[in-house]
Fold these 2 entries.
Entry 1:
Amino acid sequence: MLKMMMRNIAAASFYCSSRRWRGMPCLHSNSTLVVFDNNYFAFFHSQPSKPIKSTRTQLDQPVRDSPKITNVEDAFNVIDRMLQMRPRPSVVRFTQILGQVAKLKHYSAVISLYNQMGVSRIGRDVCILTIVINCYCHLNQMGFSLSVLGKFFKLGLEPDVFTFTTLINGFLLENRVAEAAGIFNKMMKAGNCKPNVVTFRTLIRGFCMTGNNRAAIQLLRKMDEGACKPDVVCYSNIIDSLCKDTLVDDALNLFLEMMSKGIAPNVITYTSLIHGVCNLGEWKEATRLLNEMVSKNIFPDVFTFSVLVDTLCKEGMVVEAEGVVEMMIQRDIDPNTVTYTSLMDGYCLRGEIGKAQKVFELMLSKGLMVDVVSYSTLINGYCKCKNIDEAMMLLREMTCKGLVPDTITYSILVDGCCKVGKLGDAQKLFSEMQACGQLPNVQTYSILLDGLCKNRQLSRAIQLFGEMEAKKLDINIVIYNILIEGLYIAGKIESARDLFCGLSSKGLRPNISTAMVLIQTMVERGFSADASTMELIVNLLSKDEVDPALLPLIKKSL
DNA sequence: GTAGGGTTAG
């Protein structure tokens, strides 16, 4: 079926995809902003108001045919020259430059530029201030964003729908959904600044991000009631979220609903759906969707192809994935960092580290940016081949390049060290990551805990488990399985059984892994199943959850 | 002139 899918892709005709620009290191801000009290939404009122004096009514004509800013240095030079010009260029030109630098993701640079012009009239403009708020939002500095909002009131300016949508997005970037929804609700109630389609989209995305599909759909229904007409982006966001939650049928229903309303899907809508069905292994459906989109003159782009490359790689079909990459190049769709990283991972999964390394070098030779994920993928490949030295070299190399290894990078390395029995190095890395501000998560703990248990360092494992409890981490059944197994391996049968019997009191249910741990360790040690184990096995059997490969073992233990 | 959706690593 995958081959058929690939033939269909090959048969379609494509045009060139857009190229994406990746951010360079940002400058640091030394901005000083007005500290503002908490009543930053006092602005909202229920009746339309007379506009407070706004620079929007005093704008000069936009400057046409202005050169595009492609780097920060140019932006600083241009702004510097503009500030010295008499008469000074219009505020629109300043907005365009700041907007372009913000689009390049040089948020700190925008704030520095703003500080240069802040004392002049140019800095007292709704658009300019909104851009500054957006930059603070992207730098996760909501406090400063709200201070800039305070500046609006101090200057007698009226924040508009752009400003509040930006703030909603800022809160969402910090996972502060309730505060984002709070602004939205105030906008809905107020008469002077109603949410528009972008505001709706932003909050819909926020709900989706936190897995609250229901709230997102409710918002969509509110739009249907006439608040604002939903568009392809609103639908696509929810379709994507449903697909990520494997609720592909619901996503397809929403997709049909959207089309029945005359809202045309685009390449993003299709890519989300294809990703969703690929994740479920529904190749036939993926092919159908690919054919459907091409028949509508909607052509797969680098995202769509990357999904296909990743899916093929995860299925072990790396040769076919290479074929898709070749096809992309022939079609003038440049594979990007994500495409090649997926391919590298495919090779790593097959233990073909040499080929993964070659892909990595190809990325470098093509001038593609290698990021934390690319490095982590390659590090994982070396770890799986038990070449920890090379993996550690890559860790140092990425740090030298200014890349910051994250929790996943360290987790991969901790796992690699554990798997070759280097528990000392694993624990050093575990400390190093915390010293670097990368906090271990439940998965990192489970990796180290597993390493300690399997290497018979039970007392340290129990100590680590205590750390997790002290940190109030959400200890899941996987962690308990590791510890129960560790206790069994160490011959502490009673403690293992106590831990197992206490699971339900902690609101946890044993899963198939728990059963495997219990059965295997008991069989290995010649124990027969006790009442609680029997009960567990019977429950699992009745739910058809037992791996058939385990049945001989189960019989042996009964 | 400003806000804004889809692809990769444990």
Entry 2:
Amino acid sequence: MSIWRYDSQMARAPTTSDVFNAVGDIHRRTILDVLLSGEKTVSAIARDVSLPQPQASRHLRVLGEVGLVTCRADGRRRLYRLAPEHLRPLHDWVAKYEQAINVRLDRLEDYLEELQRQGEDDGS
Amino acid sequence: MSIWRYDSQMARAPTTSDVFNAVGDIHRRTILDVLLSGEKTVSAIARDVSLPQPQASRHLRVLGEVGLVTCRADGRRRLYRLAPEHLRPLHDWVAKYEQAINVRLDRLEDYLEELQRQGEDDGS
DNA sequence: TTCAAATATGTCCATATGGAGATACGATTC
DNA sequence: GAATCGTATCTCCATATGGACATATTTGAA
């Protein structure tokens, strides 16, 4: 599966192990959302997501470790940029359920149609 | 945002708070995958994902709390079924990045085309 | 009624987590 | 070189987590 050891006593997979864990945190998701509008400075990000700078940095590190952001140095600033391609595992996983969702919606439509038909048939 | 209290000392949002956290665990994802083929018994699920029954039950409870599965009693068995509609928040969130992904891919194509053109121009 | 099957729940434990805040570090400006 | 800005890192802490396993609970069967 991946590199890190899986001791049977390990409480859970480290956050940095995959994209799923990385986006499990609301703040990290918000950071990604903020980066949708383009490259941003750590302090800008911290401000935008209302987080103290050290925490923003830490979350950015986690995001970087799973490849969701890249970092570029500009003088003493670091510019972080979205790397959305790495959301693909998440995208692909969810995609498997698209059909299931649609089937379900189809069934709902069938059900509603049937209800309507019944209503027409016996006028109760 | 939601109901549960957010004490500043709270380590993180409870797993049961949203779908993102719920699917952060590999076993829960596997359980959902297994349920893609239809309604299943707890013991069947436990067997399919190679998990002791109590753990399977606990993960199923988490999945149930965020609405991703529903449960139906049949004698002493419980039949769990996928409720994929509740993946929608996840789906929608990822969808926001589709465009970003595509833009990025477009740029890559542009870049590759440009490389090719340059290669044709100066035959180095 | 007693037993067994299917499932849920509770406890214990090692560990990962995120928040807070102090501080180290590298680059810039004076 | 010294002060300063922008970031990263480190420590401390409360808490959530998942694994393991014992046990309670519910229900069907003998």
